């Protein structure tokens, strides 16, 4: 490997807090690949909630409010990240990177040099890849894609053959693997009716497409101003974001699965409308993490509640296959130059769009 870049442009997070913790650099040291690494020239990188929540410290148990995107008055020093451990700064975030391979270490496949790849958001210990306690997140425990160049283990990348643009491909990794992981945990299939709160976001739209792909009936909940855009993902029924009486709004629909990334005040109703033997799966709490559960509802109706964060190792490559076969479609809302990342994250926080926001180095 010769003539590798020595410096690069990068958006660097210097600590927990507000958006001013992001610093733009035009001469940041470029990563140097080791024997198991792939060096990638980034073409595009999508935003996701982990970027916002990690920067703000929302994951800390000292925070009990909804995701705001602003700095919090107090976060615990020992649990400010998704994994409940301190983060090392400075850090380059960005888990949804797409780009071309520039160089491959000695242990990797040299034939992928020059090819376009997607990066798995989960950083595995490949001596023990199924061990969740040894799994990190790209752009959190390891530098990510908000830079001209990024680096990943060769086992964490997949060549993707697609006519989609880099920006379109950058909408898939976090949203679609998170959604697919939730549906895997809930064992969704034909005969299920899946209720999806927060369906206007990236994960919500992915849940619609992927649940339909599995043969399920889908009922989506979103603000009425976004219904036309949400309808493009193909739900069978669209409801308002927060019906006053969810049971009445559902009519005769029998909900076997709730796939939730919202939480908040509507949460008890989501549990109450599940059929006997129903499954609730969760991968977020953007409307608030503190909820009330009547344990009688839980056990008397034989419900199953599953959390979903670290996905099985096959899910990323499954999603790449869905993309290549045209079984899912991208939801690209807007692109920003990487140098304007603060503006991009503001637009993401304010939920100005249906779908995903992507930055371009």
Automatic annotation (TrEMBL):
The keyword Coiled coil appears for this protein: no
Domain spans labelled Enoyl reductase (ER): 17-359
Keyword Oxidoreductase recorded: yes
PROSITE patterns in the cross-refs: QOR_ZETA_CRYSTAL
SUPFAM superfamilies assigned: GroES-like, NAD(P)-binding Rossmann-fold domains
Gene Ontology terms, MF aspect: crotonyl-CoA reductase activity; NADPH binding; oxidoreductase activity, acting on NAD(P)H; zinc ion binding
Keywords from the UniProt entry: NADP, Oxidoreductase
Name of the protein in question: Crotonyl-CoA reductase
UniProt organism field: Roseovarius albus
């Amino acid at each position: 490997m010769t003539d590798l870049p020595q410096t690069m442009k990068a958006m660097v997070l210097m600590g927990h807090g507000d958006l001013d913790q992001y610093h733009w650099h035009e001469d940041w040291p470029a990563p140097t690949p080791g024997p198991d690494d792939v060096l990638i020239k980034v073409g595009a990188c999508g935003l996701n909630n982990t970027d916002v929540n990690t920067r703000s410290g929302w994951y800390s148990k000292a925070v009990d409010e909804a995701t705001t995107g602003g700095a919090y008055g107090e976060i615990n020093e020992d649990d400010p990240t998704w994994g409940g451990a301190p983060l090392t700064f400075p850090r380059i975030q960005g888990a949804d990177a797409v780009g071309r391979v520039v160089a491959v270490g000695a242990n990797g496949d040299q034939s992928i040099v020059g090819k376009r790849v997607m990066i798995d958001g989960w950083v595995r210990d490949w001596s023990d890849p199924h061990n969740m306690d040894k799994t990190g997140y790209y752009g959190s425990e390891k530098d990510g894609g908000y830079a001209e160049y990024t680096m990943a283990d060769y086992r964490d990348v997949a060549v993707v053959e697609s006519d989609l643009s880099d920006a379109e491909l950058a909408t898939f990794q976090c949203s679609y693997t998170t959604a697919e992981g939730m549906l895997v945990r809930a064992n969704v299939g034909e005969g299920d009716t899946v209720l999806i709160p927060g369906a206007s976001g990236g994960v919500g739209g992915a849940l619609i497409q992927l649940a339909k792909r599995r043969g399920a009936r889908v009922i989506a909940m979103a603000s009425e101003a976004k219904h036309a855009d949400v309808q493009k993902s193909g739900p069978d029924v669209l409801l308002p974001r927060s019906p006053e009486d969810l049971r009445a709004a559902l009519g005769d629909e029998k909900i076997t699965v709730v796939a939730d990334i919202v939480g908040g005040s509507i949460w008890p109703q989501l549990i109450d409308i599940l059929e006997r033997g129903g499954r609730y799966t969760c991968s977020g709490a953007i409307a608030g993490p503190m909820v009330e559960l009547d344990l009688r509802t839980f056990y008397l109706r034989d419900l199953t509640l599953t959390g979903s964060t670290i996905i099985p190792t096959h899910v990323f490559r499954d999603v790449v296959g869905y993309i290549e076969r045209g079984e899912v479609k991208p939801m690209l809302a807007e692109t920003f130059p990487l140098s304007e990342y603060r503006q991009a994250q503001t637009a993401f926080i304010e939920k100005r769009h249906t779908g995903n926001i992507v930055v371009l180095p």
